[in-house]
């Protein structure tokens, strides 16, 4: 389980991501089309990853979906301790 502080860290990192990566046209969220279980697997995998930067075990995951309905989306694992992110 994530603490409130860790949840905040992930939220902040996600906001930063949206700006840094120029995720114009993408909004936070997960796909609602196709195999809806696909991103659930990504979330589960993130929970078993170790942060490459600080070594924290168990990463959060955030998704962004294209706002134009083009069925495009991107997912990122985010460390709840240091905010490091990795797309996958
Ligand atoms: Zn970390």
Give a concise summary.
This protein is of the alpha+beta class and 88 residues long.
Helix/strand layout:
Layout: H1 4-20, E1 26-28, H2 38-46, E2 60-66, E3 73-78, E4 85-87
Antiparallel strand pairs: 1-2, 2-3, 3-4
Tally of DSSP β-strands: 4
* Major sheet summary line: 4 strands, antiparallel
User: Would you identify the regions where 5 or more consecutive residues have pLDDT less than 50?
Assistant: none
Mean pLDDT: 90
Please give a structural write-up.
The chain has about 90 residues and is α+β, with helices and mostly antiparallel strands. The protein contains 2 helices and 4 strands. The model has no long low-confidence stretch (mean pLDDT about 90). The radius of gyration is 13 Å and the shape is globular. Helices cover about 30% and strands about 20% of the residues. A 4-stranded antiparallel sheet has the order 1-2-3-4. The chain has helices at about 5-20, 40-45; strands at about 25-30, 60-65, 75-80, 85. Zinc ion binds near residues 79 and 84.
């Amino acid at each position: 389980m994530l603490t409130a502080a860790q949840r905040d860290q992930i939220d902040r990192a996600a906001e930063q991501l949206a700006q840094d990566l120029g995720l114009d046209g993408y909004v936070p969220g997960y796909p609602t089309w196709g195999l809806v279980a696909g991103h659930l697997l990504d979330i589960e995998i993130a929970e078993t990853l170790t942060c490459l930067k600080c070594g924290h075990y168990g990463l959060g995951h955030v998704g962004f979906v294209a706002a134009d309905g083009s069925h495009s989306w991107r997912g990122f694992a985010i460390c709840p301790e240091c905010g490091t992110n990795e797309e996958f």
